[in-house]
Amino acid sequence: MLILHSLRKKKTEKLSGADITAICQRAQQACVREAIQLAKEAHARGEEPSDEVPELQRRHFEEGMLFARRSVKDVDLQAYKDFHASQQKAKQQVGDLPGEKFHWPDSSSILDDEAKPDNDIYGGGGGSSVKAEEDNLYGPSGGSATNADDDLYST
Length: 155
Known about the structure:
The protein is mainly α. The chain has helices at residues 2-6, 9-12, 17-44, 58-65, 74-94, 107-110, 129-135, 147-153.
């Protein structure tokens, strides 16, 4: 990445992360093509191809830059900048934006006696089965189709 960073900033200034990823992928492909070509040439000379792992060079990234395309328009970039500025302004006015300082409750306070789930819903016994039937997606019979369901599919 140091090589890509060393390319002039002006060339990559308005490129998105996806655009830069495409440049890196093209650089990688150029490096692999070059390594394959060198192996073919060595084989043609009757030599054993090198076992060295090919290394990405500046020339590979420059080749990748030849195909670079911007996917984000100036209008969209300005919209992102405006949104960022409005968020920074809101943060300064209000202090912290909602959700920035979220604190999880203690695990002991999550399921105190009043907040524990009703065992009757899950078939734990004791209570009304009406609630259990309302929550049962498969009907009161626990999974089999009812006669009303059978009527829907009969001809």
